[in-house]
TrEMBL record:
InterPro entries: CT_C_D, Cyclophilin-like_dom_sf, PxpB. The gene is pxpB. Coiled coil: none annotated. It comes from Zobellia barbeyronii. This is 5-oxoprolinase subunit PxpB. PANTHER family: 5-OXOPROLINASE SUBUNIT B.
Length: 245
């Protein structure tokens, strides 16, 4: 591991927060994921601890009893300094279909005007990039994807919408993401993903994990409708690519 300077502080009586340097960086995220994997494999019983990595931090949650912060802090710092040997984490690229029709991409025209790019150019830029999952939150299954091209980086809308449709694909700052359910939201909406991002009935309700990669590809409205039907009856096949670890 890279052994970045990390800080550790209480996060209530049942949680502890570990923080890496405060920047969005794939190398930092990879260091975090290696350490959390080491904690799960060698230090903390996974069934007792909830371990939540995101961006430049990890939250450790233990609900059975209050955490002895001083004792655990010393252990964590020592564990982090160790020459960690863990099984290499499987790296996954998910290719997700998005329909960029005007009915779905309700902010495409505005983004086009602001960027000086045509709608087709915006779609091409959005689909040609590979994004990293830096966090999952806000809503169950809402993925924060980093790596948006600079020309597509826009602030959130000044007035959030009271309802953003499930599957909506949005842009906000250096991030893109997918709304997993109907929700209020202030991101700039450019399309809709036909794949459900969260299924509470599934063994793994959210199939994507922090550290995975995502690439979008454009589909027609007819393909979108077909995917929706396939998903409802449980026959849609996610496009999952295993990358070299």
């Amino acid at each position: 591991m890279n052994s970045y300077p990390i800080s550790i502080r209480p996060f209530g009586i049942h949680a502890i927060l570990l923080e890496w340097p405060g920047r969005v960086d794939v190398a930092i995220l990879e260091d975090i994921l290696q350490f959390t994997q080491y904690l799960k494999e060698c230090c903390l019983k996974e069934e007792e601890w909830e371990i939540v990595p995101a961006y430049n931090s990890v939250t450790l949650i233990y609900r059975e009893e209050p955490i002895d912060f001083d004792q655990l802090k010393v252990k964590l710092l020592n564990w982090y300094k160790e020459d960690i040997k863990v099984v290499k984490r499987e790296k996954i690229l998910w290719r997700l279909p998005v329909c960029y029709d005007e009915d779905f991409g309700i902010d495409l025209k505005e983004i086009s005007q602001k960027s000086g790019k045509t709608v087709d150019e915006i779609v091409s830029l959005h689909t040609s990039n590979v994004y990293t999952v830096f966090g999952i939150g806000f809503l169950p299954g809402f993925t924060y994807l980093g790596g948006v091209p600079e020309v597509l980086q826009f602030d959130r809308r000044e007035e959030p919408r009271s309802k953003v449709l499930s599957g909506s694909v949005g842009l906000a700052g250096k991030q893109t993401g997918i709304y997993p359910q109907d929700s209020p939201g202030g991101w700039n909406i450019i399309g809709n993903c036909s794949v459900p991002m969260f299924d509470p009935k599934a063994k793994e309700p959210c199939f994507i994990s922090v550290g995975d990669q995502v690439q979008f590809y454009k589909i027609t409205r007819a393909e979108y409708n077909l995917h929706k039907i396939e998903s409802e009856v449980g026959i849609y096949k996610l496009e999952k690519i295993i990358l070299d670890a």
